[in-house]
Design brief:
GO molecular function, one term (chain A): transferase activity
CATH topology of chain B: Porin
CATH class of chain B: Mainly Beta
Protein name (chain A): FAD:protein FMN transferase
Number of domains of chain B: 1
Order of helices and strands of chain A: EEEEHHEHHHEEHEEEEEEEEEEHHE
CATH architecture of chain B: Beta Barrel
Strand content of chain A: 25-35%
Strand order of the largest sheet of chain A: 2-3-4-8-9-12-17-18
Strand order of the largest sheet of chain B: 1-2-3-8-9-10-11-14-15-18-19-20-21-23-24-25
Helix content of chain B: under 10%
Number of strands of chain A: 18
Number of helices of chain A: 8
Organism (chain A): Shewanella inventionis
CATH architecture of one domain in chain A: Orthogonal Bundle
Structural class of chain B: mainly beta
Strand content of chain B: over 45%
Radius of gyration of chain B: 27 Å
EC number (chain A): 2.7.1.180
Radius of gyration of chain A: 19 Å
Distance between the termini of chain A: 15 Å
Pfam families (chain A): ApbE
Oligomer: heterodimer
Structural class of chain A: alpha+beta
Shape of chain B: elongated
Order of helices and strands of chain B: HEEEEEEEEEEEEHEEEEEEEEEEEEE
Number of strands of chain B: 25
CATH superfamily of one domain in chain A: ApbE-like superfamily
Largest sheet of chain A: 8 strands, antiparallel
């Protein structure tokens, strides 16, 4: 996990805005994550407006694309029972991006993999799923079985889509872009460790990268002037069965957690969606994560157990 | 996966991610149907000192159908009471006037500007507009309009086309409207420049009525208005945009105000008679409008200028600005300033001189005379926790008519023939 220098993030119930020597720090909770907006602004009203815009956009994307909200766009797709459903332009763009990632990752990144994820949920569980359960789940997975046009999506009954692997990074980039379009001030958008800095900050933002072995301690400190970073691998979620640690990155080809996956991967890229996808793809590479990232020519930090 | 080129995936992702996040701003989830409706309701009060008072209720409903269609419907109901200047001049003695209907009279005290207090009416206006986004570059709209008051019916249609260019940084628009009005004044249309008759000068009601009817034309009359407008909106940079419009308006038909009169005075300024005004039956008007609007750190500001000229010789200049300051993310205050200057119509004259030939066209209506006017207003808006918005507006308006160079004979020099009109506008609006 990554965090800016303000280390402790309690989860506020709504927005909060605090003055800092360099400007204002706004915070709120969205997408089950602590969110922060760091603004190099002297005027409190401007800071409030910026924070409100960020909050509204984060909530909008969460409301629309969360798999857990009944009646939203994703819920309608996942309850279509094989029928076609209308999709709007934004959903189409996310689907097109997901398809691109599915192809680029050689089918390892798959937004239809939720039945597998559900089997490997890491909440107080001390057994691994049966092979029969995995086979059953695999029969409901496969992005290539989803068809979509410019305004409809059709998938076999029992299948579902989950934008969770993209939505947070997407929300960071969208929010960063909206803020940069509206105000000239340097700003850092941080939604649960996924970060974008759309406007150059001459002083640079200090961003800490957590050491998964010593949570809440920054293992590396980066200075970011502009760009984005994202982290894959939530180190607080794994299970150990018979001495073997199973991470939360599941290979949708065989239904098992990726072996020798790093504990966490942090990638720097021009935008957060790109950084997040490179981090996720490298996790799916398991032991070859570092090689993969080196080949991509991006800056990164990998922690292994 | 075998990589054929080293950075194949990173560069493909760079392109895909940029196309994903580089899209236009998205509206709120269209599946939340309550967001498709937008309703504004307002009540407004307009009050001139000692003159017209108006109360107005405004209802506006917008309904979006998907991302491309918008229906906008509006209803305005207003009720007017009070007095308005008849066009006659003040005198050293009290003056008595026949009401426009011919039924009854009213008297104005010595030294006072004659105001006709017959004036009260209720007006209902309805309009509907359909906007359709045809594709990324073209937007079109069509609308209908109707307005009814006791002696007036107005019906119109309009249509427009918008074209976006230059990555939506430039918008060109072309719109046209046609309106047909039917005027059916109380008591009939006065004969042009005919003299007002009085009951006291006749033996019987029948004789009086016959004489009154001689000054009147029966039936209604019509007026047609055709408007065409061309506009350009240009986004200058992240914070500023500019708009320019050119409009051409052609009106033909009955444009005389059937309730306005002129005093006919002698060389001492003493009134000898009252005559009903008459205006030309065609008018061609050009107007040019430029505006710039900017987003500030904590608000919005705009400045605009309008120039208007027509073949009645009325020319006007309007300077206007709004400055909105955001007090907090949910509250704003707005200042409104407007300055207006007008040059009189060629046939405007504050009175007629007896003994001179009657002109074909004449009007003493101060609204088409020389004048300056200004508005100072404040507005305060608040977004409520349920997302609804409440706003309050208060404005002061003052019209200062000027003498267009007419020499004032005798007693007229003692009176203010060009009194100011002072008005207050108050409005409360609720949007949900």
């Amino acid at each position: 996990m990554t965090k800016p220098i303000s280390r402790k993030l309690t989860a506020p119930t709504a927005m909060s805005l605090q003055p800092r020597p360099w400007g204002f720090l706004g915070s709120f909770t969205a997408m089950a994550s602590p969110c922060e907006i760091l603004m190099q602004v002297s005027d409190e009203y401007v800071a409030k407006q910026m924070l409100t815009l960020a909050y509204d956009e984060a909530r909008r994307i969460e409301q629309k694309f969360s798999r857990f909200i009944q009646g939203n766009a994703v819920w309608h797709l996942n309850h279509a029972q094989g029928e076609s459903r209308l999709i709007d332009l934004e959903t189409l763009h996310l689907l097109q991006f997901a398809e691109k990632c599915y192809v680029l990752s050689d089918t390892a990144f798959d937004i239809s993999a939720c039945p597998l994820m559900a089997l490997w949920r890491f909440e107080g569980q001390h057994r691994i799923p049966e092979q029969a359960e995995i086979d059953d789940a695999l029969s409901h997975v496969g992005f290539n079985r989803i068809t979509f046009t410019n305004n409809t999506l059709t998938m076999p009954a029992g299948m579902s889509v989950d934008f969770g692997g993209i939505a947070k990074e997407y929300a960071v980039d969208r929010t960063a872009q909206l803020l940069a379009q509206r105000w000239p001030h340097a700003v850092l958008v941080n939604f649960g460790g996924d970060i974008a800095c759309p406007v150059i900050n001459k002083d640079g933002w200090q961003v800490g990268i957590e050491n998964p072995h010593k949570l809440d301690n920054a293992a590396a400190l980066l200075t970011i002037r502009q760009g984005a970073l994202a982290t894959s691998g939530n180190t607080r979620r794994y299970i150990e069965v018979a001495g073997k640690r199973y991470g939360h990155i599941i290979n949708p080809k065989n239904g098992y957690p990726v072996e020798q996956a790093p504990l966490s991967v942090t990638v720097l890229a021009p935008n957060c969606v790109m950084a997040g996808m490179l981090a996720t793809m490298s996790m799916l590479k398991g032991a070859q994560a570092e090689d993969f990232l080196q080949q991509q020519g991006v800056d990164f930090k990998v922690f292994r157990g | 996966m075998q990589l054929t080129s080293k950075q194949h995936i990173a560069s493909a992702l760079a392109i895909a991610s940029c196309s994903l996040i580089g899209q236009q701003a998205y509206a709120a989830d269209p599946q939340l149907t309550q967001d498709d409706w937008k309703v504004d309701a307002a009540i407004m009060y307009y009050g001139e000192q000692d003159r017209v008072q108006a109360a107005e209720a405004i209802g506006n409903v917008q309904k979006a159908f998907g991302d491309t269609s918008l229906l906008d419907m509006k209803i305005v109901v207003d009720s007017l009471t009070g007095a308005s200047a008849s066009g006659a001049v003040a005198q050293a003695e009290s003056q008595t006037f026949t009401r426009p209907s011919g039924k009854g009279e009213y008297t104005i005290n010595a030294g006072d500007t004659p105001l006709d207090d017959t004036f009260h009416d209720t007006r209902v206006q309805l309009s509907a507009n359909w906007q359709e986004v045809l594709n990324q570059d073209w937007t079109t709209n069509v609308g209908v309009y109707a307005s009814k008051e006791f002696d007036y019916l107005s019906m119109g249609v309009n249509a427009g086309l918008e074209r976006s260019l230059n990555k939506n940084n430039t918008t060109l628009s072309l719109s046209a409207a046609f309106t047909n009005d039917i005027v059916d004044p109380v008591g009939g249309r006065p004969m042009a420049m005919s003299q007002m008759v009085f009951r006291d000068n006749y033996e019987s009601d029948a004789d009086y009525q016959a004489a009154f009817d001689q000054t009147r034309l029966s039936g209604d009359d019509t007026k047609q208005t055709s408007d065409i407008m061309f506009g350009v909106t240009q986004i200058l940079n992240r914070n500023w945009l500019m708009q320019a419009n050119y409009g051409l308006s052609s009106v033909s038909g009955y444009m005389t105000d059937p309730y306005k009169i002129l005093s006919e005075v002698d060389l001492n300024g003493q009134t000898q008679a009252y005559r009903y005004e008459n205006r030309p039956d065609s008018r061609l008007k050009h107007s040019v409008f430029v505006m710039t609007k900017g987003a500030l750190d904590s608000g919005v500001v705009d400045f605009s200028y309008r120039y208007s000229t027509d073949d009645w010789d009325i020319q006007s200049h309007t300077l206007e600005t709004h400055y909105r300051y955001n007090l907090s993310p949910t509250m704003y205050a707005q200042l409104h300033l407007r300055y207006y200057q007008q040059q009189a119509a060629e046939f405007y004259q504050p009175f007629l001189l007896s003994g001179e030939d009657l002109p074909e066209y004449a009007s003493a209506d101060y609204r088409i005379g020389d004048m300056t006017a200004y508005t100072v207003g404040v507005k305060f808006g608040q977004r409520l926790s349920n997302g609804h918005e409440m706003s309050y507006r208060l404005e002061y308006y003052q019209q200062n008519p000027d003498n267009n160079g007419t020499v004032l004979p005798g007693q007229l020099q003692q009176y203010d023939l060009f009194p100011s009109v002072k008005a207050i506008v108050a409005q409360v609006s609720y949007s949900f």
